[in-house]
Structure formats: C-alpha cells, structure tokens
Amino acid sequence: MAGNDWINSYLEAILDVGPGLDDAKSSLLLRERGRFSPTRYFVEEVITGFDETDLHRSWVRAQATRSPQERNTRLENMCWRIWNLARQKKQIEGELAQRKAKRRLERERGRKEATADMSEDLSEGEKGDIVSDVSAHGDSNRGRLPRINSVDAMETWASQQKGKKLYIVLISLHGLIRGENMELGRDSDTGGQVKYVVELARALGSMPGVYRVDLLTRQVSSPDVDWSYGEPTEMLTPRNSEDLTDEMGESSGSYIIRIPFGPRDKYILKELLWPHIPEFVDGALNHIIQMSNVLGEQVGSGKPVWPVAIHGHYADAGDSAALLSGALNVPMLFTGHSLGRDKLEQLLKQGRLSREEINLTYKILRRIEAEELSLDASDIVITSTRQEIGQQWRLYDGFDPILERKLRARIKRNVSCYGRFMPRMVIIPPGMEFHHIVPQDGDMDGETEGNEDHPATPDPPIWSEIMRFFTNPRKPMILALARPDPKKNITTLVKAFGECRPLRELANLTLIMGNRDGIDEMSSTNASVLLSVLKLIDKYDLYGVVAYPKHHKQIEVPDIYRLAAKTKGVFINPAFIEPFGLTLIEVLYFVFISGLLFAAAHGLPIVATKNGGPVDIHRVLDNGLLVDPHDQLSIADALLKLVADKQLWARCRQNGLKNIHLFSWPEHCKTYLSRIAGCKPRHPQWQRSNDGEESSESDSPSDSLRDIQDISLNLKFSLDGEKSGAGDNDSTLESEGNATDRRSKLENAVLAWSKGILKDNRKSASAADQNTSTGKFPALRRRKHLFVIAVDCDSSENLLEATKVIFEAVEKERTEGSIGFILSTFMTISEIHAFLVSGGLTPNAFDAFICNSGSDLYYSAINPEDGPFVIDFYYHSHIEYRWGGEGLRKTLLRWASSIMDQKVENEEQIITADEQLSTNYCYAFRAKKAAMVPPVKELRKLLRIQALRCNVIYCQNTARINVIPVLASRSQALRYLYVRWGVDLSRMIVFVGECGDTDYEGLLGGLHKSVILKGVCTSASSNFHASRSYPLLDVMPVDSPNIVHTPEDWSSSDIRNALDKLGLLKG
C-alpha cells in the first residue's frame, strides 16, 4: 500500500509499548477481552484466519466509519494484518531464494559431473566413432525425417503417408469427456484440456496414414452426471468426412474409449484418482492388446498393429502412459498442460497454505513425481510456447536445457552420451478450426454485396447491442474480450484509452466482460474490477466512446469479431501473462490465445502482451504489435498506430489472413505426425503362434514344439544364477562382440532340447499327459489362478515361513495344478536358488521368478536335468529402453563413495557396490548403516539431474539398493507376462505385507487381487517410506474391493478366508 508509510511507524509504536496497554488506549474489541496483549491479539485475531484479498475493502470501511474509536479499531486490525502479510512475504521470498539457490547449485554440479563423464573419450568421439549409446538414445540422425519447412513439403509428406495404417493412443483421465456438447467449465477438471484432446483425436483421425485413434479416459456411471459418460465407446464424427472415403475401414476413425477404474458409481476429482491409476493401466493394456490384434486382422496381414505412440495429457495420464509404454515397449509422448512444480511455487508465494496443506489439498507431490516419470519415459514432450520450456520445465530435475543441448550436439556427432537422455521438447501450438470463418470485407460506410455463395444477411442483434453505446459507431472499434479479473488488466487498458485524447477521438472501445445481471450478484473480485472500470469511465468522461454490454451469447462471439473488423478496428488483450502461473495452458490458449488467433482469422490486427504465448504467435503471423502490459503509454501508442496508420493496419490484416492456416488442426497434426515418425520405432519383438485358448484341457505334442521353437530365440538356460544375466561391467564392450556367438549356441542348444522333448512325446503319449513338460511353456499359461508371493520380509526365514503357509492354504488346488506360483522379490536368481534349497523346495514349485526387483525374469525349466531356470531374453529387450549402462554405474559408484560416516575414524564408507549381486540390468549396493543412507528421493533426484533414467528401489529396510531400468519393476513384470503370454491379470493374486520395498505401491493397485498379510512389516520399513517423494497414503487404494487383509497372527485358514472374500476357491 504505497503512500501509507505511517503504518510501519504505527506498528513499531504498538510493539514498543510492550505486553500491555492501559484500558484508555485499548480498542473496543480488545477492551472486552481485558488488557491488551499484542502477541495474544496477533495469534487470536490475525493468524487464526484472515484474507488479504479484502484489504482494500477493509480500508474503505474504516475510512467511512463515523465513530473515531471504531475507526481506530479497524485501522489497528488492518495494521496487524499488513504486518503479518509483510512478514509472510519476506519469509516466503527468503525460502524461495534458498530453494532457487539450492536448485541452481545442484543443477550446476550435476551438469559438471555429466560433462566430465562424457568428456573422457572426447578425442575419440570427435573422430566419428559410432557408439551403441547413440542408437539407444532414440534421437540419432539416422532414420530421422528431415524437418519440414514449407507447406509444399508438408503436402508432399502427407501424400507419402497414405499407404500407412497408424494406430495412435491418447490418454486424458480426469474430467468429463465426450465428443459433442462438452460441459466445459462444469468444474475445474472439465476445461480447455477436454476440448483440446477431443479435437486433437478428431483431427488426427482425419489425417492421411492414420487408421485409428483411441482417446482413453475414465468411464463414469454416476447419477450425478449424464448417462453418455458411462458409454464404453463413442465415435468422434470427423469435421470433413468427405476427405476420408479412401481411408475408412471397419475399425478406422477416432474413438473415445472409456475404461472403468476407481469407484464405479462416483465422479471424483483428479486429486483422488492417483490410487486407481494402476487399475486404469491394466484396463487400458487389455483394450490396446485386443485392438492391436483386431487391426492386425484387418490391415496388418495377421500381425498385431501396435500403437505408433502413446500420448499422455496431464500428470495422471503421463504416469499411465509411461507404464503402458513400458508394458508394450512403444514410444511415449507427453503434454503437461499445467505443471505441478509451477503451481506449487505459485501457491507457496501466496503464503496462504503450507507445503503440507498444499499437498493435502492437491496431492501436488504425487503429481510432480508423475511429471518427472513422464520426462524419464517420454520420447517427445509437446509444449505450446518457448516460455513453457524455459520457465516451467526447467524447474524439473529431469530436464536441463543446457545439458539437453550438449547431448543433442553429441548425438549429431555420433558421440556416446554414456546412457544419458533428455526428452526432445517440441513446440506445437494447439490447433484451431478456421474453415467456417469468412473474413469481413466491407466497412461501416459501404455494406458488402451479397452473392450466391455468401448472400447479404441482416446485422446480428449483438451489433446493435454494442453500437447503442456509441455516439459515432462508425469509428474503428478497439475490442477486448475478458472477464473482469485483475489479471486481465482491463483497468490499465481503460486508463490508457482515457488519457490518450487522439485515441479517444479516432476510435471506440468495446469491453466484453462476460455476462452479468447485477453487480451485487458478482463475486467480490469481479465486482471490484467492474466498479473500477465504471469509475474510470466516469473519471475520463468516456460516455459515448466505451461499450460494456451486460450480456452476450457464446455463438455471438464471431459476430463481435466481425463487427470490429468491419469498422477496421483492433483486437487487444493486455492480460498479465506470468509464466502461466495457475492458469491452465489450454485455458490460456482457448481463451486468451484463441482470441488472438480468431482475431487474425477475422482479419483483425492485434495488440498483445510481449510475455508468453503471444510472442510465438506474433513471430509466425506478424499481424500486430506487442506491448508491455504494465506500460500504459505503450498500450496507447500501439493502439493509436494501428488505428491511425491505415497502411500498417492493412498489412497486419493481410499477414494474419495469409498465415493463420499455420495454426489450424491439419497443420498441427502434420507437425505432430512428423515428430512421431522421427522417434525410434519400438514394439514387442516376439512372434508367437496362436496355439489356442489358454484354458484348453489337453495340448498336443505339436503345441509344445511350437512353444519351444518360439522361445528358442529369447530364452536360455541358467545353471548358476547370475552368470547368465550378469557380466563383468568393466568389459561390457568386449563382451558385445561375442554376444552373437553365444546367442547362436544357446539357440542351437534349446532347439536340440526341443527335439528331444518331441522324441520323448512320440515314445509315450500317455506318460506325457502326466508330465509337465508336455504342457504349454511356461507352465503359468495353463493355470486357472496365479499366486504372486511378493512379501518383502526382513529375512529369508520369514519369507520361507510365509511361503509355506500360503502353499498349505491351497494345497489341494496346488496339487491339481489349477494354481501356479510366482516369486517376486529383490533377490537374485542365485539367492532364490539358495532360498529354495534351504526350505526344501524345488524350482518347479514356482512357475516364474521375478528377480532383482523386476529387472530379470526366469521360468522353472521343463526338464530339471537341463538346469533349474530359464531366463527370458525378450524381457531384457523389453526393459532396456534408456538403460544407462556403464555411465550409470560410474555415477552410482561416485555417489556411493561420497556417503561417508564422518563420526568414525577414517570416515567409513556407508554404501558399497556389490558386484556379485549386480547383473547387466541391476546394479546392487549394500548399506552398512541404514539410518545414514540418503532418502530414495534424493538419489533419484541426483540421477535425473545428470540425465540418467532409472528406477531406484530401496530394499530390506534400506540395507540394499537396487538400481534397474526406468520402466522395469515387479508390477511391470506382471504386465509383461500378460502381454507376452496372455496371462489374465484378473486371475493373479498378489500377496504382500503391510509395508515393503519402495516399489511396494505398484503391487497393490490394478486388476489383480491383493492379500495384505498383517504383521509382515517393520517400523524401519515405515521409516524409509516416510522419506519418499510423496506420502504412501496418497496412492493406497484403501477402499478397493480387490484388496483384503488377514488378521495379525494369520494362518493358512485365514489366508483361505481372505481368498473366499475375493470370490476365489469357494467350495
């Protein structure tokens, strides 16, 4: 409050008085409570609840109060509030400065270390050696489409796509989504993003080469919403269906696919969707696989047509897209729309809520982690403006613009990036529909003549509603469309207009400020702005030159643009565009940016802020002037130039009309598809014969042979644990040269083995029927149910005890073979072998083993004489995306050596690498003192800052650390079994403890059933879960019908009772 410096001295006087004042000097309110205590008054009257937004209103009331005592009381209260605000502001500014400084230091240190690692072989790399890391980066020049720089080149490219049959998957989870009559603005979740994704899906489905587009969202069957949101499928009608006759097919086009997940009868906000994301992923995975097979029969010559890309919109969909991308091994795209870190910074600046309160309301920490994971997994991140990249995405650990440029330069020179990766940021502004817009060619002095195509029509009613305000309606109209919100900066526009006499004489000003019935019925903020505008109109005597109609319809907005163009006017939006702040990017575009684009489409020159999105638009359209929204004179000068200089006005109009097509949906989709084509193609690599339903009671010897011949290319025997999956990390490059020979020998061995099985089958068919070797391989394919033991016990003895109790609970079904078992653990295959031997169990007791926290997958061998385990090669090719390899290992070793116990002599190292437990896809570390190990979120942050993408998992109460590929996990391994072998996820039952490793949450949600064994947990496990990036409770599906708990001291009968509750094993 400039000019009110007396408040500071007043506050100082109050504080100097001390703890008490005599009754004569106390205010009325304080006198009722006894002696005046500034401290108690501050706590009781200020901290307990105040709203800084009504300071001005309080000041007005205080000034209008007649009683001196009451006026002094109000002013005194205001002083305390302002003092508290000032104190809060300084505290917040200090905390913000500390966070920025810490982030800058961490970023610089990580960038320095990454650059040092990559500079070790710079002299060799400069010679042009091609390193394997380059192709793994997915951004090499080989196979990349050249950038398209002209419309002609675009058309040529589009004609080349017509032979393709692309399948694209879009995901947008929250809000209410349907193709027509969208309820935009119904709530905070149903806004511009809904409009954007629907129109994107519709437009992509109309593009050459695109056969099908699926927009996946949540199915809502709630009485609170329209029935249409409960329909499983909705086809999106193309805008221009006449262009699609040669592309149409049985399943072609764009569709909204609604996947049921979460509460079936409730519509819930996005903040409450996090616990149900795994259930959506499983349901979406089921749909995509089915659709890929259907499209394969229609247009893929019998081979599945996998999605060319999965595109997540917003953090929740980005998290889902990352998991689906990993499960299917296909490229991922991401659009943030609104970013969590930026929102958190803005909320903290306001000072109304603490970080804990913000997270409690918005689940902001889970959202930020989802956005970080999206950066880890995305091939491309699509943004709307450069500002979004430079000021929002750079807040994230996983993106550094400087390091990104260095990595890109190394890739262009075919130099190794040592496992480092940055997603490619691509600016593609949202598209608009302009084909229905006819620019206004006439003016107020001469009406346009009608013709056969566009006959003359009477003036729209909104024209007369606006022109009734004007003394001379023929003057050029300065048009502004904005809600009466302080951020829209309308008052500055009115001041600029009112204080510039030449502008007032040359033009009229039209303010379309929403719809209103009465000022008293408006919100206090909007009412305050509108009153300020009316006072300014009266102050500058702008009657007859300013229009401010109370009502207009949405369908009349194009007519308003036409009227402004008819008068040779100008469109202006002087809004304060901070780094988008809390405003959704899509709202910005479909309200603010769309205004600029529609103005250009109607032939209106524009005046806009020089901050944010308008800069990018002006660079392309060149149809107006950019101004500083805080500079009143700059706004007036820009408007006066465009109104007075007819040649400048005509040139801006022509530029806008000529270039506006660059912001159309077809142009957007062409750029979009060209970027997808530049991604390194990925999809499941195996080719498996369809040998019938999984539930068939008998299998012929030929079935087994086909299965074994199939796995001969991706399975190998392991007789001694890690020796098959691990190698000497220091000799990785040398071992690559022998990989082909080893693979050939293994293939020959497995084929020879398969011939032996076939020979045995021919000898004795009746005996083979009773032998597991004649069934489908792996054995889990013929099970009715699969029990996944994923209990993270403190010791192998506890795990063995839990396993035997579970075996005992279903001994009958286990003997019959209707139930199979999978062991899912952090242990290596050697440790598992020792575990089985110590417990008197054989490898055949389990159908599969998910090892090393999900980085390795083994099956029990059909013939024990040939070895206990068989490793799935294809699983490694499925999860190796962005695996850092040797570069990651060096960084981890450097990190481990930096964690020292300084309290003891010689500064003992806390964390050490365990080479015996490490494999090619899992780097294992031991921790001597768990309490001194940095939180898992700190290690993830460190690696992300250095552009290393991986999944860090703390195991055994932080006694062990496994670092595995970013899209590998125990829960993802279960999805792989579904994708690879067709094992139904809903037939899986996962046994877990009350707590577990840091990947614990992924084992609970989803289509599978979960049994939580109470008592299988320690306080230490809970402690290291407390150091996570976000609270575990934010993602726990506590009300899921698929989760049951056992009693504290559970037995085999308790487990059977739990299974009965899940609807299993009844009778």
Descriptive account of the structure:
- The protein is an alpha/beta fold and 1067 residues long.
- The strands form five sheets. The protein has a nine-stranded mixed sheet with strand order 15-20-19-18-17-16-27-28-29. The chain has an eight-stranded mixed sheet with strand order 3-4-2-1-5-6-7-8, sandwiched between helices. A six-stranded parallel sheet has the order 11-10-9-12-13-14, sandwiched between helices.
- Keywords: Glycosyltransferase, Transferase.
- Pfam families: Glycos_transf_1 (PF00534), GT-B_Sucrose_synth (PF00862), S6PP (PF05116).
What descriptors fit this protein?
nine-stranded mixed β-sheet, 1067 residues, disordered N terminus, eight-stranded mixed β-sheet, globular, 39 helices, alpha/beta
